[in-house]
Amino acid sequence: MTTLLVVQHEDECPPGMLGRWWVEDGATLDVRRPYAGEPLPPDLAGHAGLVVLGGHMGADDDADHAWLAPTKQLVRVAAAGGVPALGVCLGHQLMASALGGQVRRNPAGPQQGLLRVGWEEAAAADDLTAALADPRRGVHWNDDVVLVLPPGGTRLATAPGGEVQAARHAPSVWGVQWHPEADVDVVAGWPGTVRAHDEVRAAGEELATAWRPLAAAFLRLVRRREDGADGSAHA
């Protein structure tokens, strides 16, 4: 059974649609909530992939949230070992910070609501995003952005304001600034404008259609590495 380690940073940012899709496709989720006292493992033994979700804190607020440094270490373990890893919003920012990039408050102000994904040419050739690199929108709900990618990182998408919107931070490590896991039930617990909440409510079917392929692509990469590592086959 394919097991994904999922790091959740607060109750209001669960795995959402991504988690449901992965379970439907036969994966097991090992969801750790370190803010609630659940320990993070020291490494990725027993886990075929790593997923780091969003949260209200900053990527470099290690002094205020003791689990952020261990989460970054897991990112470095994934990068060093070629383990597929996916970061969402804060997770994307944590991955950039862990691998030598820079994260700061967005000079243009917060992003909130639905924004188009501005795919770069590199996205069409990327293992994760090749099948996604056509017009679609994503739920954005963030104050911070990645300003500088890690050494060797590749920008895969650019937001309408010019910010890094998706990136391959390392050969097996990807991050997206939007929330592919978020449906109306998830964002109902997030502070924001009525307009932003209404946008997500109205786009429910669109968002599921847009981002289930991302979940499937990530799981394929995880299983491809599993198969190469242990010679097993997945149905």
The string of secondary-structure elements, in order, is EHEEHEHEEEEEEEHHH
Shape: globular
How large is the radius of gyration? 16 Å
Strand content: 15-25%
Q: Extract low-pLDDT stretches.
A: 230-235
Order of strands in the sheet with most strands: 2-1-3-4-11-10-9
How is this fold's topology laid out?
Elements: E1 3-7, H1 16-24, E2 28-32, E3 49-52, H2 68-81, E4 85-88, H3 90-98, E5 102-105, E6 111-116, E7 137-142, E8 144-148, E9 154-158, E10 164-170, E11 173-176, H4 184-187, H5 194-202, H6 204-230
Parallel strand pairs: 1-2, 1-3, 3-4, 4-11
Antiparallel strand pairs: 5-8, 6-7, 9-10, 10-11
Helix pairs in contact: 1-6, 2-3
Describe what this molecule looks like in 3D.
The protein is an alpha/beta fold. The chain is built from 6 helices and 11 strands. It has a 7-stranded mixed β-sheet, sandwiched between helices. It has a two-stranded antiparallel sheet with strand order 5-8. Helix 1 crosses helix 6 (204-230) and helix 2 packs across helix 3 (90-98). The longest helix is centred in the last third of the chain and has 27 residues, at 204-230. The radius of gyration is 16 Å and the shape is globular. The relative contact order is 0.18. Residues 230-235 have low confidence and may be disordered.
